[in-house]
């Protein structure tokens, strides 16, 4: 007797529909017509079923603060940092818990069950970190949350930055963050990366650095990260986020750099919604897209995943937290519109994200793994991307944590009426 069976799931475009059994929060059988009884049955009715979405890069401490105390009118990263430093002075733990919890509810409703959030630790009280550690604890039975200690104002550029960073790791942050391109000098940027790697080794943590998030083609800290990842052996425990400057590197340098990156095994996270919005702001015309070289990296087999980055905060005045929204933008901005390319973008918000977060061993619809899945109102990955499909059912460790009923629209045209069908 099983706890639950999801019947008639479409795991891939062709092939038979699959039944998925669940017992004690784990998958126990994944096959056509599973011959078993269960206390509960969910009929997926031929809908596409995927492992949960992975949010590789978000800021749950800043979320839902857009317009507080003022709006970022210029739309630049730098005015965003100024707005945030004003809002940061007003933070309380209750305030962070309330906003983060609401954003997580949105994310779960869209089928996200793994979240990596950066947390600004340039605050002597570490208010946001303490609050998010509590949120991580409360949400642990449902959603896997990783916290990156993120020195928004710099490790060397902010007084006591290195001490706060280490304190954040002692308090329980899962990964070490950084912002080398925002340190006062190139040399400080390199030094900050050495501090980050040393702390990660000392405390056995992952690394995820906001790296080269600027249109300046002279910003070249990815090369330092990949060299350190190779020399320390930390390799795929290291992630370079944003790397938007790579968009502007000359071809010869980018080609050499990508070979080094592939050799080092580091992960990349692009944030298409926020990159296309914040970058290119100092250009007249033509305006650069400011997205890192997602297409080229994917073609080389480098692990690239995607993040929403900001949801209604000083850096992005929009967003509902959906990874399909992020992937939809990626398809356009990276011009990954080939059929296999679109499929690979879908993988950037699922499997590739699991690799970035280092949770790949407990991720996927296979017997013995945690029973996490999403029934999408879609036929396959491409359909989900095109229609921004809702998550009909989200299952976390075998329990339903969100349900959405797809909208139904009726058209009244030419003297008749019928429910509309968006499938071809
Ligand atoms: Zn970020």
TrEMBL record:
Q: Does the keyword tRNA-binding apply?
A: no
Q: Which Pfam families match?
A: Amidohydro_3 (PF07969)
Gene3D superfamilies named among the record's database cross-references: Metal-dependent hydrolases (3.20.20.140), Urease, subunit C, domain 1 (2.30.40.10)
Q: Name one GO molecular function term.
A: isoguanine deaminase activity
Q: Which residues form the Amidohydrolase domain?
A: 40-402
Question: Which of UniProt's keywords are assigned here?
Answer: Hydrolase, Metal-binding
Keyword Hydrolase included in the entry's annotation: yes
The GO annotation for biological process reads:
cytosine catabolic process
Output the PANTHER family linked to this UniProt entry: CYTOSINE DEAMINASE (PTHR32027)
Q: What is this protein called?
A: Cytosine deaminase
| Organism of origin | Candidatus Cryosericum terrychapinii
């Amino acid at each position: 007797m099983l706890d639950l069976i999801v019947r008639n799931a479409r795991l891939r475009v062709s092939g038979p529909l699959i039944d998925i059994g669940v017992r004690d929060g784990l998958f126990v059988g994944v096959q056509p017509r599973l011959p078993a009884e269960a206390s509960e049955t969910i009929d997926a009715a031929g809908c596409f079923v995927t492992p949960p979405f992975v949010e590789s890069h978000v800021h749950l401490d800043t979320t839902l603060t857009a317009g507080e105390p003022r709006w970022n009118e210029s739309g630049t990263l730098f005015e965003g940092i100024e707005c945030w430093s004003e809002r940061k002075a007003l933070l309380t733990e209750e305030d962070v818990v309330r906003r983060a919890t609401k954003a997580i509810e949105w994310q779960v409703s869209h089928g996200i069950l793994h979240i990596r959030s950066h947390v600004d630790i340039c605050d002597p009280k570490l208010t946001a970190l303490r609050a998010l550690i509590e949120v991580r604890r409360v949400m642990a039975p449902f959603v896997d949350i990783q916290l990156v200690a993120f020195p928004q104002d710099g490790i060397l550029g902010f007084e006591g930055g290195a001490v706060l960073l280490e304190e954040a790791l002692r308090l329980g942050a899962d990964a070490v963050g950084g912002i080398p391109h925002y340190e006062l000098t190139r040399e400080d940027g390199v030094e900050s990366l050495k501090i980050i790697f040393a702390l990660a080794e000392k405390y056995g943590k992952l690394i995820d650095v906001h790296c080269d998030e600027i249109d300046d083609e002279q910003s070249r800290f990815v090369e330092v990260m990949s060299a350190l990842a190779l020399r320390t052996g930390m390799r795929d425990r290291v992630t370079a986020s944003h790397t938007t400057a790579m968009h502007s590197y000359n071809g010869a340098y980018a080609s050499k750099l990508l070979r080094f990156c592939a050799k080092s095994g580091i992960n990349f996270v692009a944030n298409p919604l926020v990159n296309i919005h914040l970058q290119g702001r100092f250009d007249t015309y033509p305006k650069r897209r400011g997205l890192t070289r997602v297409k080229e990296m994917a073609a080389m087999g480098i692990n690239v995943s995607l993040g929403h980055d900001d949801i209604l905060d000083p850096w992005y005045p929009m967003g509902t937290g959906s990874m399909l929204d992020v992937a939809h933008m990626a398809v356009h901005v990276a011009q990954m519109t080939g059929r296999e390319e679109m499929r690979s973008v879908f993988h950037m918000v699922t499997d590739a994200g699991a690799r970035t977060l280092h949770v790949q061993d407990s991720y996927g619809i296979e017997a013995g793994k945690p029973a996490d899945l999403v029934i999408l109102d879609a036929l396959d990955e491409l359909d989900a991307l095109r229609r921004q499909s809702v998550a009909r059912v989200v299952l976390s460790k075998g329990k339903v944590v969100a349900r959405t009923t797809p909208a139904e629209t009726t058209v009244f045209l030419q003297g008749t009426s019928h429910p509309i069908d968006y499938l071809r």
